[in-house]
Amino acid sequence: MAVSSMSKTALRRAMAGNTVSQKVAFNATRTYASKTASLKETFAAGLPEKIEQIKTLKKEHGNKVIGEVTLDQVYGGARGIKSLVWEGSVLDSEEGIRFRGKTIPECQEVLPKAPGGNEPLPEGLFWLLLTGEVPSEQQVRDLSAEWAARSELPSFVTELIDRCPSDLHPMAQFSLAVTALEHESNFSKAYAKGMKKTEYWEHTFEDSMDLIGKLPNIAARIYRNVYKDGKVAPTQKDQDYSYNLANQLGFAENKDFVELMRLYLTIHTDHEGGNVSAHTTHLVGSALSSAYLSLAAGLNGLAGPLHGLANQEVLKWLTEMKSTVGSDLSDENITKYLWDTLKSGRVVPGYGHAVLRKTDPRYVSQREFALKHLPDDPMFKLVSQVYKIAPGVLTEHGKTKNPFPNVDAHSGVLLQYYGLTEQNFYTVLFGVSRALGVLPQLIIDRAVGAPIERPKSFSTEAWAKLVGAKL
Predict the structure, then answer these.
(1) Which one from 360, 408, 410, 445 is the annotated catalytic residue?
(2) Is-contact 137 112, C-beta < 8 A?
(3) d(CA 382, CA 70)
(4) What positions does UniProt annotate as the active site of this protein (predicted)?
(5) Annotated catalytic, 353?
(6) Residue 138 confidence (pLDDT)
(7) Model pTM?
């Protein structure tokens, strides 16, 4: 991304004396006319301080023990082991998620909104996750314009999507298209020619911005090919990211759906670094794979039924419940259905969380949206009754550490209300949002020189020997 000579001078002065920042290149091909500091400039200006913080922390406290690892954790999927650096968000078991220290309600309050809108724009959250700063309205407008300017897909990618069989799962098509964009990677091309480590982050930044700009086009093309007429509306360069996604899917005529997309894309972005999609993107990126290959790997993890497909499972279960209980949503009827579900050996989908021990704030934000926009919807009334009854039933059942709902317990109901009923596509929307959360960390990883990730593993026999057990 090119910047004006004035902004170059100002930035160089701000970064005077710092070797890493002085070597930031400004030779990209795109120009965005704006007097406000761009996202790239803002990130670069804060980078020297971040690098120094990490150096000081490692130098003064590098030998401190920060936790213990039990054998249960090792065999339990590394659950709860403190071993990852993730700047964008921290998940507290009681408080919920904080994005750069801000709760979801705080983000809803302070992040810029579209003219006349009430929900935060995901562009603002991306800026916050990357820089730690709340952007101005103008900075967000400029970022919307930049992503729109980068949105066009190479012809071979559109042809690739169009040639996919309609019964190939949308997530497989999504991952395939993102992988194919590796052909366009700034990072891979620069690495092949030879570049300095201090330049890694800039090329990762450019790849990430290009990729994010193209995701609505990819997602919409898959949706329109599989479920509609195959026609995709062009990107409107004067509109925000969520509007363009909604419009290309074919739902922009409903302003409330556009608002839902703004909320949905914001709250599904990031949820700490240990979940499968986030950790996989980070792990693959640590090998210096490009943003395209790293995100594609993360999307493949997101496609699993224990991760991104969970919202489909919830909606399927709720639909089955509705067909059984009908219009009788009495406490007794819902309680019986919940117990029948548990006694059959099934779980109550959408309830419980690996870390949280309270109602997911992302669930709460969606519930508030529903109370405002669709309070009389029969499926929302069912969700509300389950929310009222399920925690008590699950507590009595005694096998659930967290008896409260997570984000998946609500999102599918909102989407189907507005006519987006194709459940196999829901995880693609999740993937568009999750890219906005994992790619900032990938940029940060390259900027601070994060190493390749390589934990130590043992066989069961070696673990037994380590803990003094005999097999």
Answers:
(1) 408
(2) yes
(3) 41
(4) 307, 353, 408
(5) yes
(6) 97
(7) 0.90
